[in-house]
Amino acid sequence: MYIDSIKNGYVIDHIKAGQSMEIYKYLKLNELDCQVAIIQNAKSNKMGKKDIIKIDKELKLDLDILGYLDSNITVNVIKDDKLVEKIHPEMPEKLVNIVPCKNPRCITSVERGLDQICVLTDRENRVYRCKYCESRIN
Amino acid sequence: MKNLIGIEDISVEEIDELIEKAKDIMKNRDKYSEKCKGKILATLFFEPSTRTRLSFESAMLSLGGNVLGFSSADSSSVQKGETVGDTIKVVGGYSDIIAMRHPKEGAPVVAEKSTTKPIINAGDGGHNHPTQTLTDLATIAIEKGRLDNYTIGLCGDLKFGRTVHSLVTALSRYKNINYIFISPKELTIPDYIKKNVLEKNNIKYTETTDLEGSIDKLDILYMTRVQKERFFSEEEYIKLKDVYILDNEKLIKAKKDLIILHPLPRVNEIAVEVDEDPRACYFKQAEYGRFIRMALILKMLNIK
User: Fold this and answer.
1) Could you tell me how many CB contacts below 8 A there are between chain A and chain B?
2) CA B298 to chain CA mean position, Å
3) Which ipTM score applies to this complex?
4) Tens digit of each residue's pLDDT (9 = 90 or more) over B138-149
C-alpha cells in the first residue's frame, strides 16, 4: 500500500493498533478540509502492529489529548517535505473540556457553564479523576 | 485552611487544634458566647438534613452569631433553575461564612470559586462530609484520650458511606491503627480507598462479613446505616438494609472499654436497647459535633 508523503503537516506515529479512530475523533480531524490518512495495523519492529495518522496541513495540534490517550505516541512535524521535529506528548496534569465526567451524581451533570476538568492523580497508573467529584475518568 | 471541602484540607496539627478548642468550649461555654457577635452563618441545604444543619445553626447561635439559609432546594431559587455558582455569589454578599449541603458531588468546589467567604462542605452526595469526620475524630479523642494505637471496626455500608471513606482517610495519618472492615460483599470498601489510602501507607486492614466474630478485637466500633438514597434499585436496598443489627447479645463478647459510634440517623442497625449501654457513644458524638463545629467556625473566621 502506498500513501503519499506530506509537504507540511504531521505524522502521528506509534499509535497503539486500533486506537487511531479514537484519536481521529478526539482531535476532530473530520472537521478538517485537508487530506488525512489513517493507516491501521502497519508493521512495526517495536510494537508488532501500530496505527499511523498523517495530516497534510499545519495546524495547532492538541498535544494534551494525545498525551492523555497514549503517551507512547510520536508526533513528527513535517515542513517543506522534511522532518523538523519529533514530539513525544506527555501526560498533561490537567484536561479541560476534553473528557466529560460520567458520574451521574457529579455537579458537572447539572451546573451550567462549568468546565469539565480532569486532574492527573496517579501518573504511574495513568489515572485521571474529575476535579469536582473525584470519580475516575479513564 | 480557607475552605473546608474535604478532610484532606486540614492538617493533623489543625485537627488537634480544633479538638483542643472544642474541649475548651465545652468547659468554658460563657467565654465563647459572644465571640461571633455580628457575624452571619448561611446554611444552604440543597438537600434535606436535620442533624448537620441544626448542629451548624446551634454552633453559630452558641457563639452569639446569627444564622440564615434554607433547608431544601424546594425553598430556594434552585427550583427556578439558578446554578450553585450564582446562589453562592448572592449569599456570599449576605453572610460571613457559608455551610452548604448539596446532593451533587463536587458542588462545594464550584462554591469556593464563587465567593471570597469561607465555604464549609456539610456533605456533597456520597462524596465528602468533613465536619462529620471532625466530629468522629473529636469523639474518639475525647472518649479514648488519643487518636492513635487502636483497632477500629467499620460496619455496614462501606461502599457508599462517605463518612467511612473520610474517616479512614483522616485516620490514615495517625499511627498504629488496625482496621477491620465489616460489610456485605455488595457494600465493601472501595478499591481506591484500599489502594490509595491504606496500602499506599502500609496500613494493615482486614475485610470480613462477620460482625460477631470480630467484635472482641475492637476498641472502636463505627456502625453505619445502609442509605436508601444511594441505591438505584429498591430491591437491592431491601436486601441489604438489615444485614447487621447490633444488639446487647452481640456486645457480650466486646471489650469493656469499647466505644460505639454512629454518624446518625440510625434506623435498625443499632437496637434501641444498646442506648443504655455505657459503651454507646453515638448521642454524645452528635453533641460533640456541635462543639467541633463551633471551633471550626471560629477558626475559619479567624476569631481566637
Assistant:
1) 53
2) 19
3) 0.85
4) 999 999 999 999
